[in-house]
Automatic annotation (TrEMBL), chain A:
Protein's UniProt keywords contain Endoplasmic reticulum: yes
Upper taxonomic lineage: Eukaryota, Fungi, Dikarya, Ascomycota, Saccharomycotina
Coiled coil: none
Listed GO CC annotations: endoplasmic reticulum; Golgi apparatus; TRAPP complex
UniProt entry keywords in alphabetical sequence: Endoplasmic reticulum, ER-Golgi transport, Golgi apparatus, Transport
Family from the record: Belongs to the TRAPP small subunits family. BET3 subfamily.
GO biological process: Golgi vesicle transport; macroautophagy
Organism of this sequence: Lachancea meyersii CBS 8951
Subcellular location: Endoplasmic reticulum; Golgi apparatus, cis-Golgi network
Protein name listed in UniProt: Trafficking protein particle complex subunit BET3
Keyword Transcription regulation attached: no
UniProtKB/TrEMBL annotation, chain B:
Quaternary data: Part of the multisubunit transport protein particle (TRAPP) complex.
A GO BP annotation: endoplasmic reticulum to Golgi vesicle-mediated transport
Name recorded for this polypeptide: Trafficking protein particle complex subunit
Organism per entry: Lachancea meyersii CBS 8951
CDD domains according to UniProt: TRAPPC4_synbindin
SMART domains: Sybindin (SM01399)
Length: 202, 196
């Protein structure tokens, strides 16, 4: 309990550490888990089925994964907020920190690195050092060029951020499955939907 | 104090859920409940406009005291009131949450300037608003201005939000923004309110 308290009482200097402790506590003590292999294999079978269904038109598969993710994101954000009751982030830097240390931690038990900020601070990258979705995956030759295997994550982030009134573009910039050095997810904030922020907030 | 009615209002001010827990509760027609929901939506917006500047500044002042959450400058913390109204038996499954309770720490109310609590001679009404704009409203059978009762109500409503996240949002056949007709949600909410 003391750990999670400190998460809420974080001052800017110590917020890094305490947000981490706060999320660790929620992940460890408050969240039911499932077998990671079951999860990975389920996702794998969905992607491979989609490839078959769309006759290996990988652009369509990407789009479909994205839209599935979007539908998950707009719902999952409620779970995230109910669980954490975190206040609104006052900057995109804070948002990025909450996404990596809190959201990825609680739902996927990974803490990706944040970096590659644009000069006007409106976009950043999420570097997935480990990706639970693609644990056992090797892309076939024909898919390696076009398919973004974990594209569902982009949709989830897009949907979730939209529900907290942030209009963002989210897309994969690189993926180790395609032979790249890193798995990089790019998030670009278009605008904050000010008119839709619920009345009563400060 | 018992809970008489719980309402859920979606982000556009539409009533998506209404349930009475007390048999003697005065019956309102569904149209009247819709009007109540819309009115509350409007009043919250008005309240956020007319909250005195001094209160807002006072809120911000205490934030500098170092007890406020990092993200919201003036968001007041709601204390955790213990397992009151939660599953008492730790063996009971709680959806995607691990027991014994949905959460166990003080939390920030993001509704810093809006309406949170209304008291009349007969009832009190409590309102919990989420970042996505959903409002959870509880009406009690007795009027109260007790800070503890307000904290209990906010805890209860956040737990209702946890149930909503599990049994409404994760129901694949529920369409967002539409009236909630989920039996599991009804059932779990009944248990939650019953244990209060």
């Amino acid at each position: 309990m003391s750990a999670s308290m400190s998460g809420n009482t974080a001052s800017s200097s110590s917020s890094k550490k305490s947000l981490k402790a706060f999320s660790d506590d929620i992940w460890k003590n408050k969240t039911a888990k499932i077998n990671a292999e079951l999860f990975t294999l389920t996702y794998g079978s969905i992607v491979s089925q989609l490839c078959t269904d769309y006759e290996r038109d990988f652009a369509k598969v990407n789009k479909q994964l994205y839209s599935m993710g979007y539908n998950i994101g707009v719902r999952l954000i409620e779970d995230f907020l109910a669980r954490t009751a975190l206040p609104r982030c006052d900057s995109l830097a804070k948002t990025s920190e909450v996404i990596s240390k809190c959201a990825f931690k609680i739902f996927l038990n990974v803490t990706p690195q944040i970096g590659n900020w644009s000069s006007n601070k409106d976009s950043f990258s999420i570097f997935l050092d480990e990706n639970p979705l693609s644990e056992f995956v090797e892309l076939p030759m024909d898919a390696a060029r076009e398919l973004w295997y974990s594209n569902i994550l982009c949709g989830v982030l897009k949907g979730a951020l939209e529900m907290v009134q942030m209009d963002c573009d989210v897309y994969f910039a690189s993926d180790v499955l395609k032979g790249d050095q890193t798995t990089e997810l790019r998030v670009k904030l278009n605008k904050i939907l000010k008119d839709e922020i619920p009345a009563g907030e400060d | 104090m018992a809970i008489q009615t719980i309402l859920v209002i979606n982000k556009s001010g539409g009533l998506v859920y209404q349930r009475d827990f007390v048999a003697t509760a005065p019956r309102l027609s569904s149209n009247e409940y819709l009007i109540l929901a819309g009115t509350l939506q409007g009043i919250v917006a008005i309240a956020s406009q007319i909250t005195p500047k001094s209160l807002q500044i006072a809120g911000k002042g205490s934030a500098k005291g170092g007890v406020e959450p990092a993200g919201g400058a003036a968001a007041p913390l709601v204390p955790y009131v213990g397992t009151l109204g939660a599953t008492t038996a730790s063996g009971t499954p709680m959806g995607s949450f691990l027991g014994p309770d949905y959460f166990n720490d003080a939390f920030a109310s993001c509704n810093g300037r809006g309406l949170k609590h209304v008291t009349t001679d007969q009832n009190s009404l409590f309102l919990y608003q989420t970042l996505t704009g959903i409002k959870f409203v509880a009406v009690s059978t007795q009027p109260t201005t007790n800070a503890m009762a307000v904290a209990v109500a906010e805890n209860l409503l956040r737990k209702a939000y946890c149930l909503y996240a599990d049994y409404v949002m994760k129901n694949p056949f529920y369409e967002p923004e539409m009236p909630i007709k989920c039996e599991l949600f009804d059932q779990k909410l009944g248990v939650l309110v019953g244990q209060l």
